[in-house]
Amino acid sequence: MHADEQLLLQPDRPLRVDAQRHRELRVESGTVWITAGGAAGDLFLAAGESYRVPRRGSVLIEAVRGTAEVSLVQDRRRLMTAAMARLRCLLPGAVAQP
User: Fold this and answer.
1) How far is it, in rounded angstroms, from Cα 65 to Cα 47?
2) pLDDT tens figures, 32-89
3) What is the reported pTM?
4) Where are the domains of the chain?
5) Where are the strands (E) in the chain, listed by range?
6) Which CATH class is domain 5-90?
């Protein structure tokens, strides 16, 4: 599995992860704080650890105690499903149902 997007996070600058586009984030360096809507609590991940992005809800990530580098892995299946749904809305009847 390869990273589709790499980010350098700064402390006090939270970033929203798009659950429709990403399925996993990996911490390459530093430490990150993660909070997800509907989750029981917050998480702290260090370099080498990863987090599976839930299909629904919002996810915020932020570097703690210095910068952190994270890799985001796109979920191609989620992207395709979302694109097909948009096409069905724009062109009713033109896109076959799976």
Assistant:
1) 13
2) 999 987 777 899 999 999 998 887 778 899 999 999 999 988 766 655 666 667 777 7
3) 0.69
4) 5-90
5) 5-9, 15-17, 22-36, 43-46, 50-52, 59-74
6) mainly beta
